[in-house]
Amino acid sequence: MSSRRTILLTVIAVSFFLIMASVVSTFAQEKPKDYPKRTVQAVVGYGAGGGSDIFSRTVCIGARRYMKNPLVVINKPGAGGVLAMEYVQSQPADGYTLLAGSIVACVTAGLQGLTKYQYTDFQPILRAQYDTMMMEVLPGGKYNSVQDVIADAKARPGKQTWGVVGSATGFNALLARQFTGPMGMDVKLVPFDRAGKQHASLLGGHVDVILEEPGPISELLKAKKMKPLLVFAEERIEDFPDVPTAKELGAEAYLGVWRGIVVKKGTPKPIVDYLHAIFKKSMDSGFYKKYERSEYLHLRPGYLSPEDFFKFMQKEAEFYTREYKRLGIYKIKK
Question: 285 vs 15, 80, 241, CA distance in Å?
C-alpha cells in the first residue's frame, strides 16, 4: 500500500474516534422499529487500502454516528467483486448486510455468466461517486496532445500500446474501445492486474499511454511525472481546464468507476429509506467532502437517490449487454 493511502487510512481512523467523542446532533429521519438492534456489516468486494475500501470506511464514519449502532466494514475480495455479491445474497434481506464500494460487478458479472445474480436482485441505497477517467502520457515525450496520440496510432496500426487495468474485456478496455473506434484508431491494449504495475509501466516507458483516474496518480501529476491529455467526460473539469474531453473529439467515451451502497432486494422500505438518509447525511459532512476532493472524486456529480441509481444501473446494463454480445462474452446463468 502506498504511503499516501496509509496516511489517509490513519486520518480516517483518528477522525472516527473524534467524531464518536463529539456531541451527536438529532437525526431527523424516523428510525424503523427494532432496527438496527445488532451490528450492521458493509461488505466490500476488494482488499483493504484500495479505493472501494477507503470510500466505504470513510462514508461509514458519519453513518455510524447517526445510526448510533455498530457498523463495520468487512473485506471479501475475490472474483472482481463477485464473492462479496454472493455473500450479501446469501444473507437475509433485513438491512444488516450492505454491499459497498465499487459495485459495478452488480451489473457486469451476471451478464458474463460469472454469477446467477443480476443488478435487479439488489435494492439501491445510493450512488456516492462517479469517477472520471483520463488518458495520461509521459511529459516531454512524443505526445504533446491527444491529436499526437491519434496521429501516431493511425501511422502505426496495432503498434501503439495502451496500459489498462483489468482484462482485455474489462471496464478499462471497453472505455478504450469507446474512444478508439470513433477515432479510427487501431491500438494494442496491454492489461495489468494492478494499477501500480500499470503506472510503473508508463514511467518506465514500456507502454505509450495509460488510462487512469487522477486520484491514484495525483502525486505523479503534481510532480509532472505524468501528463493528462484527455478527459473521458462530457464537459471539461475545473481541476484540469486545459485538457479536452472525449466529447469534444466526437467520441461518446464517458465510462467511469462508480461506487455506492446496495442491499438485497426485498429489504423493507422503511429500512431502505433510513439507510439512504444516514448515508446521504454522511456524504454531506465536511469530513467526507474533504476526502472526496483529496481523491479527485468530486470532478463529476456522484450522488443518486435509490430510484435514480436503479435507472442508472439499468442503462449501464443495456450498454454492457450490447458490448458483451459484440465481444461474444454475453452469458446469463439460469
Answer: 12, 30, 27
